[in-house]
Amino acid sequence: MNTYTDYKLRIFPINGDGTPCEIDRAQSVTPTTNLNRERKDELGRDGVVGYKKGIPQISYALTQLEYGSFEFWQRITNSEDAETSIDLNDFKTSKSDIVAYLTDDDGTFIGTMHYPKLRVSGFNFTIGTPTDDAQRSFNLVGEKAIQWQGDNKYYIFVRHEAGSGDDNEISLATRVPALLPDMDVSGYSDAKKYIYRVLRFRGTTTTELTVDTDYSYSDATKILTITSVLTSDVIKVYYTSSTAPATLFTDNDSDPASIAGDSVVIEIGIGTHVYRLQSIDLGVTFDRTDEGEIGNPEKILNSIKSKTVSIKLGRFLDKDLTLEEALRDVVDGYGQIDFSKFVDSVTITAKIYEDNTQETFKCGFKATGLSSTEIADGASVQNITTRNFTFEGDSLTITNNIGSL
Q: Are the CB atoms for 170 and 25 separated by under 8 Å?
């Protein structure tokens, strides 16, 4: 049996030079694999002829408690560690491997569940009630699910930055690559039999290198050799081994265990605090363009056709109509609030602090160019009257720099 304490999640960015890290404060993951098998029949036969094996479709849902760290945002967008602000365009071509290292109740390592090259199709930031923890959730898509076991039970990552001269050899002797089980070992080079993937990050471009053309590997020497490198090239090697990587999961005791609703400040416009707020659901949906090609099971084009930002604010109806006045762009006490005249360029900001003293800023969201799409009032016996607002736009910044908000 494998329980939640031994389900250790890590993310491996594909593009850029971001290094793998554990996925902190995860509450649930629900990967689903649709094998995309299509039954084939024919006239004159009673019974199936066979099945067309299409490209699998992976949907991967991940939910985390909000804990104020910007690290996962950097990894999921393949951004550099120094990056302090992310916008929705950063999700276009970013992709990542997500793995779960699995151990049973007896402490025996089972293997690694691996979902390669996942792309983000949407995400949410939510606070259900003023006393609830803030949560963030992600929806990702991909085409492959792999369970590594036996001699291949550990998924290994090695980073090599080329120094001056012909610094093109990478030793894999510490954690020796295992033979890839699905590869016919006869007639193939060691590189094709042992190495899962090799990437080169040069300048701002990540390139997947071609086996035998761009790199080679010798099982005798445990040396992987890059055909041609330039100084400062970063080579990223992915393979499997029977030997554990240096790090499976590192406990994060520096960030808060969670962040509750009383530690989050929601503003509309420039610094106008939204009072009486009971809930917020900030959601982003991408209409992705991930296209393949004839003769190749991989998706060769990753992009986003359109982006939708939706924000729902649940609020008590009160004599303080600051929010309505801001949406109408009128002064305090203006005599008529005509909903049809709400402006179409609203800015909503969520500032996330370490605790309810609201002194230590952690990270936040800024949505601009929002339009009000719905206002829903609710009144019932023995309950406070509510007014819920829905906004829609296509621009969002995520940042750990309060100056960017």
A: no
Q: In this structure, is the dihedral angle defined by the CA atoms of residues 208, 214, 220 and 223, taken in order, positive or negative?
A: negative
* Signed CA dihedral, 68, 236, 251, 107: sign only: positive
Residue type, 249: F
Nearest Cα residue to 122 out of 299, 263, 310, 291 = 310
CATH of the domain at 292: 2.30.110
DSSP characters for 145-161? -EEE-GGG-EEEEEEEE
Average pLDDT over residues 15-25: 95
Q: How far is CA 364 from the centre of its chain?
A: 16
109-127 and 277-293: which strand pairing?
antiparallel
Say yes or no: 179 and 312 in one domain. no
Our count of domains for the chain comes to: 2
Is 69 in contact with 255 (CB distance < 8 Å)? yes
Any domain includes 382: yes
Residue positions counted in the chain: 405
- One domain for residues 286 and 213: no
First to last CA, the chain: 46
Residue pair 243/210 in contact by the 8 Å Cβ criterion: no
Q: How far is 316 from 319, CA to CA, in rounded Å?
A: 10
In the predicted model, what is the mean pLDDT of the chain?
92
SS3 341: helix
> Cα(224)–Cα(216) distance, rounded to whole angstroms?
6
Report whether 20 contacts 13 (CB < 8 A).
yes
Q: Are strands 395-399 and 361-378 parallel, antiparallel or unpaired?
A: antiparallel
The alpha carbons of the chain give a radius of gyration, in whole angstroms, of 25
Sign of the torsion formed by the C-alpha atoms of 216, 221, 222 and 226: negative
For 272-297, how does the pLDDT look when each residue is reduced to its tens digit (9 = 90+)?
888 888 999 999 999 998 887 887 77
Q: What is the pLDDT of residue 4?
A: 62
The domain in which residue 289 lies consists of 261-404
Domain termination site, one of 188, 205, 240: 240
Q: How far apart are CA 143 and CA 31, in angstroms?
A: 12
Q: 176: alpha, beta or left, given left = phi > 0 and alpha = psi -120 to 50?
A: beta
Instruction: Please name the residue that has the structure tokens 């009383």.
Output: 262
pLDDT at 35: 87
